[in-house]
Amino acid sequence: MPNKLTFTVPTEYDGVNALNFLRSYCKLSSRMITRLKREKDGILMDGKILRTIDTVSAGKEVIIRLIDEKIGIEPVEGKLDILYEDDYILIVNKPYSMPVHPVKQHQSDTLANIVAYYAQNSGKEFTFRAINRLDKDTSGIVFIAKDRYTANAVKFALNKTYFAVCSGIINENGTVNAPIALKKDSKMVREVTPDGAESITHYKVLAKGEDCTLVSLVLETGRTHQIRCHMAYLAHPLEGDDLYGGRLDKIQRQALHCGKLDFVHPITKQPITVTAPIPDDMKNISREINAALENNIVL
217: closest CA among 179, 174, 263? Predict the structure, then answer.
């Protein structure tokens, strides 16, 4: 992993305050700037210390030091389905039944453990930073930033598309704009309620089975269990999602998969699209949906 980033000051930033340049153009967070100021040669312009009260000049090179950090997670060998990787980013396809981060009940069987092992054994050690978090039984794309700068730069810039198989027949595309909050007397289940946080989900019908529907979903907000809660609110809970009223006769986990990710690379500024195929357990819920997917009709 590189130990520094280099930015050339563009003409439109000539004479701009360094703090504004670092936050606006370099996309550094206030916390990272504060930390870099404490580091030796943390922020340089043409080889000299750049203070936040200084101004930057067009054509000059500003160098940001990437601070070394320890992983802090137990490395555990395991299979890693890598969809994309470079010096700054690792994107993987997480299987269902695997937590992203270690928790009390899962200390060594998580995606973070496997990535830590991969990083350690490939000589590219980095702190595990999953920018998008999936529930344990949700499969699909997880974006992992290899350094703090990349994590901050892409935090709100990932465009994700989910795929779900819902109970019942949905005939039209639509949008759910309904606030969500934690259900009373529950530590996990969410519900639509007037005093909840704003939550917006867009869904599109892709294929229909005899008694279920494959949809794609894009979120404007990122509430916990948003898709699961919203589709249950429409009386079309996800197949296998018994927490929200889904059936368990065709699949034993919520039929939800993060299958597409679009973003602009924070370093190269190039647009990137990454996809992960819908897993077999979701395709096998319906013969008609499986046929549509196999024939590339819907994706």
Answer: 174
Asked if the 69-156 domain carries CATH number 3.40.50.300, the reply is no
Q: Is 23 helix (H, G, I), strand (E, B) or coil?
A: helix
How far is 127 from 147, CA to CA, in rounded Å?
Answer: 7
Burial of 1 (0-12, 13-18, 19+ CB in 10 A): middle
CATH number of 158-299: 3.30.2350.10
Per the structure block, which two tokens stand in for 199?
A: 């939550």
Q: Which residues are catalytic?
A: 135
pTM: 0.86
Q: What is the pLDDT of residues 108-122, one digit of tens each?
A: 899 999 999 999 998
- The predicted-structure confidence for 128-142, as pLDDT tens digits, reads as follows 999 998 999 999 999
Q: In sequence order, what are the residues at sequence separation of 6 or more whose Cβ sits closer than 8 angstroms to the Cβ of residue 63? A: 4, 5, 6, 7, 43, 44, 45
- Distance between CA atoms of residues 93 and 175, nearest Å: 27
CB atoms closer than 10 angstroms to residue 141: 24
